[in-house]
Amino acid sequence: MALYRPVLVGAKTAAKCGRGLHCIADVCVTPLGSSHSPSVGALVAKAVKVIRDYPANPTLVTHTHGYGTNVEGNMADVLAAVEACHKVLHADGIPRVSTTIKIGTRIDKHTTIEAKIARVGQELDKL
User: Fold this and answer.
1) What are phi and psi of 113, to 5 degrees?
2) Which of 77, 83, 108, 120 has the largest CB neighbor count within 10 A?
3) Could you tell me if residue 77 is left (phi over 0), alpha (psi between -120 and 50 degrees) or otherwise beta?
4) pLDDT tens across 42-95, in order?
């Protein structure tokens, strides 16, 4: 299963048309207090699926990594998707959910997760 979902048509257009502030966020959702087991992998996978399938904006781009998920799109939609994660996990009986979020925005140029990864790859190739 691919962890990177490529940019869909509309993400760049939305950012340039003033539909809201475009951002790239690093989101780490941690379910706490589960009686299932010490492992939270299945619950984290559920949260990742909520973000990937978030219906409010199908143009959200995701890239899951070892300690979270990068989410790219309209900031309001990114934050709403994170809220949906909390709601789903609480509905499953998880009493506490802790989330850390780093959000980056730029107004001087449009950037994407894919472009950031490619840029680091270019620099690595020089080494």
Assistant:
1) -60, -45
2) 77
3) alpha
4) 888 999 999 988 876 678 999 999 999 999 999 999 999 999 999 999 999 999
The enclosing H or E element of 104 equals strand 96-104
* Residue 73: count of CB within 10 angstroms of its CB: 27
Could you give the CA distance from residue 43 to residue 31 in angstroms, rounded to a whole number?
7
Joined tokens for residue 70: 């990068």
Task: Give the 3-state secondary structure percentages of the chain, helix then strand then coil, rounded to 5.
Answer: 40, 25, 35
Q: List helix spans (H) across 1-127.
A: 11-16, 41-52, 75-91, 113-126
